[in-house]
């Protein structure tokens, strides 16, 4: 039984929407204004599971979140894809011509830059959360300030949408992962996706050899991301997502990678939802 789910942001945020869709409408959430706070909620036992954005189809991977999952030995137990609709909103009665500042999460601002460039006189201010910005505008009756957030946030905090669907690319998708402290048992024939981390010897061809093993074992590489090892100059950790039709193929690849890599770790094995 899940008592509480940690989300980054407040009610009305995209994380909140994912929690409602992945679990159920009346899910109890712990509102966290940073991903670090979200992880602390899990580690302290305040929350049972958490929803964490991991990559966006426009802005790319959220690299620090991979590091958070790895550093704190958290487990990915599921995933959820959400179509992102960004909207410009402000107090009722305001017009775009009245706006002097737009506040939102840096990822949301980045996703809407083509629209925002049409208004060079508007100052862009990065904030911790899309929905929290919308709520603050309403609570403090901030005129001349607009937020970029979801339609749900505009309805929840009674703001007018000045411009709908302002994201640069209309097919804007974010992938979220579901994480917890302990791994969840999933029967092998239901596992079609894995997130892994490995470190390789710094020599020519080491990464190519690993990729060849994945290909030979019929794994589909859906993402690869490298992060430098801070304590070891010029060495990198690789975070990789793979999908597969048969668990046996993945298990074979895993047994080989354990031998080939200097360090190998499974971050999660779970159902593929896309």
From TrEMBL:
Enzyme class of the recorded protein, top EC level: lyase
A Pfam family recorded for this sequence: PDT
CC annotations in GO: cytoplasm
EC number: 4.2.1.51
Residue ranges of every copy of the Prephenate dehydratase domain listed in the record: 4-181
Catalytic activity, reaction form: prephenate + H(+) = 3-phenylpyruvate + CO2 + H2O
Pathway as given in its UniProt record: Amino-acid biosynthesis; L-phenylalanine biosynthesis; phenylpyruvate from prephenate: step 1/1
GO biological process, one term: L-phenylalanine biosynthetic process
Domain ACT: 195-274
Keywords for this protein: Amino-acid biosynthesis, Aromatic amino acid biosynthesis, Lyase, Phenylalanine biosynthesis
CDD domains (UniProt xref): ACT_CM-PDT, PBP2_Ct-PDT_like
GO MF annotations in UniProt: prephenate dehydratase activity
Domain of life: Bacteria
InterPro entries with a match to the protein in the record: ACT-like_dom_sf (IPR045865), ACT_dom (IPR002912), Preph_deHydtase (IPR001086)
PANTHER family referenced in this protein's UniProt entry, alphabetically: PREPHENATE DEHYDRATASE P PROTEIN (PTHR21022), PREPHENATE DEHYDRATASE-RELATED (PTHR21022:SF19)
Protein name (Swiss-Prot/TrEMBL): prephenate dehydratase
Source organism of this protein record: Flavobacterium segetis
């Amino acid at each position: 039984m899940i008592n509480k789910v940690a989300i980054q942001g407040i009610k009305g945020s995209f994380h909140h929407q994912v929690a409602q869709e992945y679990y159920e409408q009346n899910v109890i959430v712990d509102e966290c204004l940073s991903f670090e706070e979200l992880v602390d909620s899990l580690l302290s036992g305040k929350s049972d599971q958490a929803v964490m954005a991991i990559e966006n189809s426009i802005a790319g991977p959220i690299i620090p979140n991979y590091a958070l999952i790895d550093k704190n030995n958290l487990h990915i137990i599921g995933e959820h894809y959400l179509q992102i609709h960004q909207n410009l909103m402000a107090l009722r009665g305001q017009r775009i011509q009245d706006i002097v500042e737009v506040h939102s999460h840096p990822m949301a601002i980045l996703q809407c830059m083509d629209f925002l460039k049409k208004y060079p006189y508007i100052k862009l201010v990065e904030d911790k959360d899309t929905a929290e910005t919308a709520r603050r505008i309403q609570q403090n009756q901030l005129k001349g300030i607009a937020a970029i957030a979801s339609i749900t946030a505009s309805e929840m905090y009674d703001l007018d949408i000045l411009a709908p669907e302002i994201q640069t690319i209309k097919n804007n998708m974010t992938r979220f992962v579901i994480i917890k402290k302990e791994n969840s048992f999933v029967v092998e024939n239901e596992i079609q996706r894995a997130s892994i981390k490995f470190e390789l010897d710094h020599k020519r061809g080491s990464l190519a050899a690993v990729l060849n093993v994945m290909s030979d074992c019929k794994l589909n590489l859906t993402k690869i991301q490298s992060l430098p090892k801070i304590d070891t100059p010029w060495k990198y950790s690789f975070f990789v997502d793979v999908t597969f039709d048969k668990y046996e193929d993945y298990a074979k690849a895993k047994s080989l990678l354990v031998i080939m890599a200097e360090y190998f770790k499974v971050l999660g094995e779970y159902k593929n939802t896309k």
